[in-house]
Automatic annotation (TrEMBL):
GO terms for molecular function: acyltransferase activity, transferring groups other than amino-acyl groups. SUPFAM superfamilies: Acyl-CoA N-acyltransferases (Nat). Pfam families: Acetyltransf_3. InterPro entries: Acyl_CoA_acyltransferase, GNAT_dom, N-acetyltransferase. Residues 22-178 form the N-acetyltransferase domain. PROSITE patterns: GNAT. This is N-acetyltransferase domain-containing protein. Transmembrane segments: none annotated.
């Protein structure tokens, strides 16, 4: 179920954001080749819920389903991460409007270790907070702790870990769930993953 928090005073579908180094904006149809560069790399997409893409045609379909469709909604946050120097997409950051308000990101590996994902993530977190989302959640594979570092840099707190037979890749993953509350009480925890997956536990991190 999608949850919208509309404010007629301004655009709440992926409004452009500028940070010190970045422009965060909608993906455009003429960004398909840039999007393919992000999505074709097996290492970049190793911990993501899709296989690396093979060609431009697959990328066009991905864009239509995961970006263009969202831009038709009354509220969405589905950003291309671009450097200010050239406004060319090098990654993405998003917050879903489903109940979990899942926060996610990806970045071409030649731009790793520069704080870009954290800079983009912090800006989007501030945007969704301003726009009235009550909370966000995020999950990462326990074998990908760097993703958890980005979540922490954005102010998120670890809540619990659960095991899931992950689709479409069909292998068992231990996911760490992080959360940041805006209007919910600070002790409130999104429990759906805990309830859906019987093998769950809290780690000492």
């Amino acid at each position: 179920m999608k949850c919208f928090y509309l404010n007629a005073a301004y655009n709440m579908n992926t409004p452009t954001i500028k940070t010190d180094r970045l422009i965060l904006r909608k993906f455009l149809e003429n960004d398909i080749e840039a999007l393919f560069l992000i999505l074709k790399d097996k290492e970049v997409n190793k911990f993501l819920p899709w296989y690396s893409l093979k060609d431009i045609e697959e990328t066009k379909k991905f864009y239509a389903e995961r970006y263009a469709a969202k831009y038709e909604q009354p509220q969405a946050y589905a950003y291309a991460i671009c450097l200010k120097d050239d406004n060319f997409p090098i990654g993405y950051v998003k917050v879903d409007m489903e109940e979990h308000h899942d926060f996610g990101y990806g970045l071409r590996k030649e731009f790793w270790h520069r704080g870009i994902a954290s800079e983009a993530g912090k800006a989007v977190v501030e945007q969704v907070k301003k726009d009235g989302l009550p909370y966000i959640t995020a999950t990462h594979d326990r074998n990908n702790p760097r993703s958890g570092n980005v979540m922490q840099a954005c102010g998120m707190k670890y809540c619990y870990t659960y095991e899931e037979l992950w689709q479409p890749k069909n292998f068992l993953v231990a996911f760490r769930m992080y959360q940041l509350n805006f209007t919910k009480g600070q002790d409130w925890i999104y429990q759906k993953y805990w309830e859906e997956h019987p093998n769950h536990f809290i780690e000492e991190l």
